[in-house]
Design goal:
217 residues, mainly beta, FAD/NAD(P)-binding domain, six-stranded mixed beta sheet, 3 helices, 12% helix
Length: 217
Amino acid sequence: MKYYDYIITGAGAAGLMLAYRLANDSFFDQKSILILDPIERIADDKTWSFWEDGKGEWDNLVSKSWNSVIFANSISKLKIPLDSYRYKMIHSKDFYHEVWSVIRSKSNIKFLKQEIVKLVSNNKYVEVHTHRSKFKASKVFNSIPNSENYTKQNKYPVLKQHFVGWFIKSDSCSFDSSAATFMDFDIPQEGNTRFMYILPFNNNEALVEYTLFSKNY
């Protein structure tokens, strides 16, 4: 069973950002690090947006930012300035390219396309079982959610977020490019919490998402 100092299970945003941090810290240059995920993500398959006060570490990857946000319903519409904050958006392909280029520059970090089956821990180390191999490490950082932690309990209500989005281009000026529409509730609610989320890139292009929270899976 191959031993590593650290194993990262899951190579999504959380796992890759951790690996990126380890790769950029010379303290870990002599540590063996393994990243496990059945998929190597490099495509432009999503966007991430976040709040930040002033300049930030990822500004070179930010494709668009907004200095105001909009909240609306059927009777009112509020455009709220963010003062020193900005709502920033990053395309996943740019994030993947940045972090993978740093991670791959480190000979002590290895990535394997393997699906994690289970984790087994004891007082000394953690075993990671995949569909084809077994590994062990002194520390394992797991970013793979276990839905049973939520579905097999009755103490708290569980709501699932559903959303679908489109990149839209109109022939006319349809959007206020200075503001991100964070929540527009002016749509039928149908017994759920539903809203539109709009990130305009300019006056006629935007990412438009329909979002709802429901107990239904």
